[in-house]
Design brief:
3 domains; 4-stranded mixed β-sheet; two-stranded antiparallel ribbon; 9 helices
Length: about 290
Amino acid sequence: MTGYGRAVNTYKEKTITVEVRSLNSKFTDLRFKIPQNYREKEQVMRKTVTNSTQRGKVDVNVDVKSNSGEAEYALNETLFKKYYTSLKNLSNEIGMPQGDMMQAILKLPSVIAADNNSLEKEEWEVVQRTMKEALETFQSFRKEEGGAMERDCTDRVNSINSLLEQIAPHEAARVERLKKKINQHMEEYVGKDNIDANRFEQEILYYLEKIDITEEKVRLAQHCKYFIEELQSPKTLKGRKLSFISQEIGREVNTLGSKANSSDIQHIVVQMKDELEKIKEQVANTV
């Protein structure tokens, strides 16, 4: 499920901002962008975010800015000169143009480094607090979106149930049409006076069994009930199960359509499929 959370705090002359963004994913995929001197705490931060987000493609950005206007990063001049000398000698040796060596060297490891490589205990506590606040906002965002999704899916499942009830009035009519159709065929090919009443009843029973949709209607109603129960359960991770249940709903709806033998019932089935597709779209965005 998508989500967003942001929190800002200050420590001495620094402003610390934490942003957490997520997109739906079947697996946990964390990407961190943090200052170099926070790297020692990256595993702790990863565990904190994983425990809170549980699953998804999550981007975490920890940004630190100086309020005093002083740069938080410095150029390692000694290392820069060593890189420059080595690259220049190599360029002359192999006869390769030097190009924009300045930009290339600035991208090399440790050329640009934080002024203070140590993370103070008090600053780390502020970072932890800021991350916690960002994750709380993130979870609130998710809950609000999840609530909207739950209401939408509930309405659509109820709509499928309502459409299911509309099938019954059309069932008697399709049986009569089937009897009439079989009788016409037998009169055409056998002759009205040669129709065997027993054989006629056998044919009717055979085709009625073929188009009977009682079991499908019962199973569809059960699947819809199960979907609502699972949707309203207190469990956090329910996306996969809802996806499986929606597949079962789709299977019964498709069978209803194939056995309908009625344009009126087919019309109802199409409406069911439309509602189900929108349910699947919502479920695909759940945790």
